[in-house]
TrEMBL record:
Keyword tRNA processing among UniProt keywords: yes
Alphabetical UniProt keywords: Endonuclease, Hydrolase, Nuclease, RNA-binding, tRNA processing
Assembly behavior: Consists of a catalytic RNA component (M1 or rnpB) and a protein subunit.
Protein name as it appears in the record: Ribonuclease P protein component
Residue stretches spanning the membrane: none
Species assigned in the record: Dermabacter jinjuensis
Source organism superkingdom: Bacteria
The protein's Enzyme Commission number: 3.1.26.5
Catalytic reaction(s) noted: Endonucleolytic cleavage of RNA, removing 5'-extranucleotides from tRNA precursor
Homology family: Belongs to the RnpA family.
Function field: RNaseP catalyzes the removal of the 5'-leader sequence from pre-tRNA to produce the mature 5'-terminus. It can also cleave other RNA substrates such as 4.5S RNA. The protein component plays an auxiliary but essential role in vivo by binding to the 5'-leader sequence and broadening the substrate specificity of the ribozyme.
Short name of one Pfam family: Ribonuclease_P
Keyword Hydrolase: yes
C-alpha cells in the first residue's frame, strides 16, 4: 500500500473512530469516515487506511503479519471508497487463528456495512437541510 494511502497520525485515527460509522464482525471492526472539513490539515482526496492491532492478538511478529494481511486485503478495496474517506480497521483477539478467506469475507462484510451506514447518514443529513 502506498504511503499516501495510509493513516499515520493519531488525530486522523481519533477523528475517524469518533466521527465516522463503524461495523463490527467477529474478528474485525471497521471505522469509516469522510474527513473533508477545514480543521483537518492533512486532507487529501484519495482514501486512506490505518490499522489498529492490539497486543491481545499476539506478539510483535503475529501483529506485523496480521497488519500485512489486512494491508493486502484493503489495497484491493481502495477503489470502493469515496473521496476523502478514512478507514480504521481494528482487530480483535483470535484473528490470527482464522484463514485468509474468512478474513477477507469479514473485512468485506464490515466494509460494505459501514459504506451503507455512511450513505444512509449522508442522505439523512441532506434531507434535513433546506
Amino acid at each position: 500500500m502506498r504511503a499516501a494511502s495510509r493513516l499515520r497520525h493519531n488525530d486522523d485515527f481519533r477523528l475517524t473512530t469518533r466521527q465516522g460509522v463503524s461495523a463490527a464482525r467477529s474478528h474485525v471492526v471497521v471505522h469509516l469516515a469522510v474527513l473533508s472539513s477545514p480543521e483537518v490539515k492533512r486532507i487529501q482526496e484519495e482514501p486512506r487506511v490505518g490499522f489498529v492491532v492490539s497486543k491481545k492478538v499476539g506478539n510483535s511478529v503475529v501483529r506485523s503479519r496480521t497488519k500485512r494481511r489486512l494491508r493486502e486485503i484493503m489495497r484491493a478495496r481502495l477503489d470502493r471508497l469515496p473521496a476523502y474517506a478514512t478507514v480504521v480497521v481494528r482487530t480483535r483477539a483470535g484473528i490470527n487463528d482464522i484463514g485468509h478467506d474468512t478474513l477477507v469475507s469479514e473485512v468485506d462484510s464490515a466494509l460494505t456495512s459501514a459504506l451503507g451506514k455512511l450513505a444512509k447518514r449522508s442522505s439523512t443529513h441532506e434531507g434535513t437541510r433546506g
